[in-house]
Amino acid sequence: MQIELKSPFDAHLHLRDGAMLETTVPASAEQFAGAIVMPNLQPPLTDRHTIDSYRARIEAIGGESFAPAMTLFLTPSHTPADIEALKGVISAVKLSPAGSTTHSEKGLHDLVNNHSFMAVLEAMEAMDLPLCVHGETGDFVLDREAAFAPTYRALARRFPKLRIVMEHLGSRALLPLLDEQPNLYATVTLHHLLLDLDALLGGMLRPECFCKPVIKTPADREALQKVVLDAHPKIFFGSDSAPHPQADKARGAAGIFSAPVVLPALAGFFEQHDALDRMQPFLSDRARDFYRLDLPDRTVRLKKDPWRVPVSYGGVTPLFSGERLIWRVVDGA
Ligand code: DOR
Ligand code: ZN
Questions:
Q1: Which of 6, 54, 179, 292 is 20–30 Å from 153 (CA)?
Q2: Pocket of ligand 1 (CB under 6 A)
């Protein structure tokens, strides 16, 4: 038994920089034809020069079979002209409200009443440039996504032609927005789809399962599974794979390094639900249409050949570290 995927695409990926690229880029390029690459480096990617040179560093490792689609980290000082000058350079703008997550300190503080932000969104709407949002407030940690719903709704209504992605959706409270607002979309990660708080806190604390937004309740996980298995047309896969060195994880850094296990773990999930035919649209077609991408033409094959996930990749503990997975990527040309 074999699974074949045409040009799988990861619509939300953190690759980091420097030596770590030697680990992260091959881990994703083995399975994916491309990715939306997140801009929260230190310092973040806020201009054309840093974006272009980062893209070149990724391409130098990933080669022609992996297409990085770049994003801009939005700060309070960006103007509409800055965004217009990036036409053709970036595939999306990333909004990480200040304090919401790793390396978001330079992000925006005030959203809906912020005039310069509104002007930037107006320009993006005119350019048809998508906005990717880390939607969390400063409320109680399990309520942060749900509490962001009014902001999503307000932005979607004020800019009805701006396509907005609710990134790494982990709370079932946000799901109704997809059907309520025509211009709201969502990415779903592997970890929010498969895990709940028991994986993180139910036994020994497992830092490799800690991320923002935090994985939530069984009811949230089941609701996400349902919309993914029902092939919701506005949901596509984005891993939010976000590696941190073990020393940083020990200090509490948020981020799950799922890249090495994404396709094998998802194959197991879809097979278990007798829904292998739903992998292709979730893992490529819908994101490709949304971002209007011209991806490298690849066929990635998986077969049943159990393997044990290494405990470390270049000093980073992966999701499912040391566990046995049934499906294996055998060919990604
Ligand atoms: O847990 C997270 N880690 N969530 C994010 O949104 C960012 C990411 C990171 O960059 O480490
Ligand atoms: Zn992310």
A1: 292
A2: 14, 40, 101-102, 134, 211-212, 242, 254-255
| pLDDT computed for residue 54 by the predictor | 98
Pocket test for ligand 1, best of 45, 71, 102 (most atoms within 8 A of CB): 102
Residues around ligand 2, an ion, CB closer than 5 A: 240
Task: Give mean pLDDT in consecutive 10-residue pieces for the chain, a chain of 333 residues.
Answer: 96 98 98 98 96 98 97 95 98 90 76 88 98 95 96 96 98 98 98 98 97 98 98 98 96 97 98 98 98 96 98 97 97 72
Residues noted as catalytic: 240
- Read off φ and ψ for residue 251, nearest 5 degrees: -90, 0
List the residue whose alpha carbon is closest to atom 11 of ligand 1. Answer: 255
What is the domain range of residue 242? 2-331
Q: Which atom of ligand 1 is nearest to the CA of 104?
A: 7
The CATH number of the domain holding residue 77 is 3.20.20.140
Amino acid letter, residue 87: K
Triad 224, 241, 316: Cα angle to 5°: 135
Number of domains in the chain: 1
pTM value? Answer: 0.97
Nearest C-alpha to atom 8 of ligand 1 is from which residue? 255
**Ligand with smallest separation from the Cα of 36:** 2
Chain centre to alpha carbon of residue 332: 21
Cα separation, 215 vs 213, whole angstroms: 6
pLDDT at 101: 75
